[in-house]
Write a structure and sequence with these properties.
It contains three helices and five strands. With 107 residues, the chain is α/β, with parallel strands linked by helices. Pfam families: NTP_transferase (PF00483).
């Protein structure tokens, strides 16, 4: 018979944030909405993800910053074709762009 309590104790130790051994964290950000509730601040040409609200940064910038601070090794942004140019431009301006991947799906 397998001692499940012992296995859980070992697994709990391995996934403990304070331990030296950690799983890489990959974050997924859903950024495909139109932001209709924020109109007129957001527009079809400037969706809410790309609106600058605090400290001259976009909502998407703040989200990526929080994820990197939390220990994400990689961020995957899922968006749609119409928002792809703006999101791609934002990512290219970041210093950590090599850790960010954009996946676009057709509308």
């Amino acid at each position: 018979m397998l001692n499940q309590g012992n296995i859980w104790g070992k697994l709990k130790h391995r996934i403990n944030v304070r331990s030296k051994w950690r799983f890489p964290m990959i974050a997924v950000v859903l950024a495909g909405g139109k932001g209709l509730r924020l109109w007129p601040e957001s527009r079809q040409t400037r969706p809410k993800q790309l609106c600058k609200f605090v400290d001259g940064k976009t909502m998407l910038d703040h989200t990526i910053d929080r994820l990197m601070t939390a220990g994400s090794s990689r961020v995957i942004i899922i968006t749609n074709d119409s928002l792809l140019p703006g999101i791609n431009e934002l990512v290219q301006q970041r210093g950590d762009k090599e850790k960010i991947e954009i996946l676009s799906e057709p509308e």
